[in-house]
């Protein structure tokens, strides 16, 4: 296992214990988090990375704890950041009735959220941008991307633009359930730069219609 | 994580963010000679050396002088998203930002010529690789997404050919676009004062009375619409 992979797993296991517990001091209940396009331990499709369209990926969840009123999601890379993790995405105020996040959540804050997650807002990632930005690890390194879903026992209705620390502080004591997904990503090298900039070259050059030397 | 960790905490490309930061650009309008630069060897322009800034601007060639047609096309699409023409008013394209940058690449910005050549082609190549279309052919939403990838450094590791990080290229173009849009029109940008109108800068004045100040704060002060050198 590569060092970055090991660091990612260690970091992820640390993150699983924070925030610590619900209001009664009990450990959050686990629940299932899936994606129609991603699986733990498998490569994230390039459309969810800068190598592709950099859309936010679809995520679904099942068997939320009874009494879930709101949901928050963080996507983070525990193998990067100083200190780790490097945060790629924060979204919260998701209605407790939601069953997941659709692909391509708007990055423009003036654009309305899809109907199923109306009211959700996005926090600031580690670039300071309130949107999803996908994995772009240094060339040749494989990183783990930890999607954590928190089930909350109350409607906090937090303001947009919180960073990870602010969100975790705000939800501390309200987390009654937690689930996660941890796919991986390694950059896909671009093909060599093309030499010809003027369009596709013909496979066979056409024969000249006249001989320019036969005048 | 992106390749360029140093590019964290950067701002979103938006008109709102731009307006929040526009005080700097307004201040820059008073200090153009040192900041925006003149053509090498031209020296500082003094007020009595020119007739009017507007006339000087009008005399400039509309044809690209230092950029190729392909580079001009890509840069034009890029500046149009950095400061878009929207409900707030005309943007960088309408302010003549491309013409300003093109001219200055033959003068004060000549050291950036290679970065523009490589960066604009890399932007186009990255766009074709990631979004399967040339940058100029993308929707505005996809163009914005590509520019966010540049801004965050996410485009760097794709191998598109940026000199250094894509974030450095993005920041360079954004800075020059702001100079072009909000600088004094004598330097070839801020056409028809669209930049100053955008940030409601009322123009350079030799004196500001208490009444002027009051009307400025209430948004009632009529802009002078003239260069500091007119």
Could you please describe the fold and organization of this structure?
The complex is a heterodimer of chains A (215) and B (230). Chain A has 215 residues and is mainly beta. Chain A has a six-stranded mixed β-sheet. Chain B has one domain. Chains A and B meet through loops of A and α7 and α8 of B.
Topology summary:
The complex is a heterodimer of chains A (215) and B (230).
Chain A: H1 3-15, E1 29-30, E2 32-34, E3 59-62, E4 70-77, E5 86-95, E6 100-101, E7 121-122, E8 143-144, E9 146-152, H2 164-171, E10 175-181, E11 184-185
Parallel strand pairs in A: 1-10
Antiparallel strand pairs in A: 2-3, 3-6, 4-5, 4-9, 5-7, 8-11, 9-10
Chain B: H1 15-20, H2 22-28, H3 32-35, H4 53-58, H5 69-82, H6 97-104, H7 113-131, H8 140-152, H9 166-182, H10 194-198, H11 210-217
What order do the SSEs of chain A take from the amino end to the carboxyl end, as H and E? HEEEEEEEEEHEE
What is the overall pLDDT average of chain B?
81
> What is the number of independent domains of chain A?
1
- Poorly predicted runs of chain B: 1-12, 18-51
Strand tally of chain A is: 11
* Helix fraction of chain A by DSSP (H/I, runs of at least 4): under 10%
Biggest pleated sheet of chain A: 6 strands, mixed
The biggest sheet of chain B amounts to:
none
Kindly report the greatest chain-chain contact and the residue count on each side: A-B, 35 and 32 residues
Shape, per Cα inertia axes of chain A: globular
Assign the CATH architecture of chain A: Alpha-Beta Complex
Note the beta-strand portion of chain A.
15-25%
Strand order of the largest sheet of chain A: 1-10-9-4-5-7
Give the termini distance of chain B in whole angstroms.
50 Å
What is the domain total for the residues of chain B?
A: 1
Q: What is the strand content of chain B?
A: under 5%
Q: Supply the CATH superfamily name of chain A.
A: PEBP-like
Give the C-alpha Rg of chain B.
18 Å
The helix fraction of chain B, in percent, is 40-55%
